Amino acid sequence: VEKYVKFVKERTEIEQNYAKQLSSSLLYPFPPPPLSLPPSSLPFLSHRFSNHQSFLDILNEMNDYAGQRELIAENMMMNICIELTKYLQELKMERKTHLSEAKKAQQSLESTYKQLDSSKKRFEREWREADKAAQYAEKTDQDINATKADVEKAKQQANMRTHIAEECKNDYAAQLQKYNKEQSQFYFSDMPLIFNKLQDMDERRVRKLAQGYVLFSDTERHVMPIIGKCLEGVTKAGTNVNERNDSIVLIEQYKSGFERPGDLDFEDYSQGINRASSDSSLGTLGTPKGPLELLGKNRSKPFWLFSKKSKLSPSPSSLTPLSTPPASSPANGPPSPKFGRDPLSYCLKEINKTVKPRISSFRTLGRMPTVTEDFGHLPPEQRRKRLQQKLDDIGKELQKEVDQSEALDKMKDVYEKNPQMGDPASLSPQINQTAQNMERLRLELSKYEVMDSPLLATVIHISIFIIKHMCVSPSSPDGTPSEEGTPDPSQAIYAEFDDDFEEEEEELVAPIGQCTAMYNFPGASEGTITMQEGEVLSVVEEDKGDGWTRVRRANGNEGYIPTSYVSISLSK
């Protein structure tokens, strides 16, 4: 029984370790992402893709499977180990009792035998003494020199010894009869009864052990239906994968919302017409990401939209058809106060706000986008989604603060009506703090609602359209740049564009070390590069505290990767 209990305990430990290791492997199915990594670059954490959802379903099923293995270990421990251990203690006590009874019976028989042996030896001794006394009396009687008194004394002594010998003989006979009876009782009654009890006890032990053997298999057989359902769930998860729907969801998630570039315009140099920019000439960097990337440069012929040679003073009259909103009617009400009386100035100011951060070159712009508060660095569709998500988050926080404010007001009313329950003044700091939080969240909500408004998006698109047509002065019919014009308040923006876009492609920065990838990285977001586990890359720029490291491949491709995904070795 002890060996079998030890065997089952080892089996339960194996099951528990297996379930524990299986559960721990389910907690971290992917390498831990850095804290600064945006959620949009971790599509595998999303539930929108059917293959990801199926994998999560498989993890859930395996979690249930691990739970069933733990249940097997618990049932084996409770129903087999603990029960058999308790039964084993009872067996030991019963066995001890039976052996004690056998020992007591044996001791009783041995005690009777000792009494018999003592009686036998006494009888033997007294009989010898009586025989000596009889011989001495007979010798004295035949002695002619002995007196009559001596003869009588010797005879009396012999008779006394003979009487004592007879008593010892009778006692010996009685002890012998008693011993024989007890011996017969011991061997024919007591010991067979004890052995029968021991036999019954051992048979019950074997039967209990056999039941433990059956429980060993029944315990696992009882959970097999649930384990079968878990495996069916894994199969179902595999059949639920819809690759077509996943591709559609992926497209919906990452679509930019930009329109396709238009055709290139024919430039007739024979007519002396200045070269005009087109949509595609401003988008030589691939898919545009915003107003900044529309201000590109032509690699064949460097042409800067706002360089000193191209500075133009647009005529207000010529820009009126493009920038002046339609005349307001009484039904529509007064014009929007945002535009004031000079919509072009407002448009250029909006563009000026978005280009404040200095960008050394388009190469740097491609790999390290400037993150703005209004998500202007994202494509239109992505920007709309992020703004809507921000609005939803602020709305939830605001609703939470409103609920807390209402609860504090009710509590204050209760305290005012029942002063013994608390001091109303003690709630004033919490009420004031809640009010400040609500005001702050309302301001943020209003700000992001303005950012998400279609009107602002329209203004930005109008501004871009105006800028693209400012390269040719509409005031001169031959396309010659106009040298005269009224100074515009928004002209200050040109000076900023002069400094930002006069630099050429920067030279490659010398690497400062190497790094080895510990995990795969998809590099789905803009400015990042893909990375395979075990790949060796050159470190160009250390982590500045944002969780990203700039690296370079042997072919010259550069980008950012999560710092926590690599093992970095810097050169001394």
From TrEMBL:
Residues 311-343 are annotated as: Disordered. It comes from the Eukaryota. Residues 323-337 have a biased composition (Pro residues). Keywords: Cell membrane, Coiled coil, Cytoplasm, Cytoskeleton, Endocytosis, Lipid-binding, Membrane, SH3 domain. GO terms for cellular component: cell cortex; cytoskeleton; plasma membrane. GO terms for molecular function: lipid binding. Residues 377-454 form the REM-1 domain. It is found in: Cell membrane; Cytoplasm, Cell cortex; Cytoplasm, Cytoskeleton. The keyword Metal-binding does not apply. One of its GO terms (biological process) is signal transduction. Its main location: membrane. Residues 88-157 form a coiled coil. This is Thyroid hormone receptor interactor 10a. PANTHER family: CDC42-INTERACTING PROTEIN 4, FCH AND DOUBLE SH3 DOMAINS PROTEIN. Belongs to the FNBP1 family. Residues 311-322 have a biased composition (Low complexity). It comes from Oncorhynchus mykiss (Rainbow trout). CDD domains: F-BAR_CIP4-like, HR1_CIP4_FNBP1L, SH3_CIP4-like. Residues 510-571 form the SH3 domain. Residues 1-246 form the F-BAR domain.
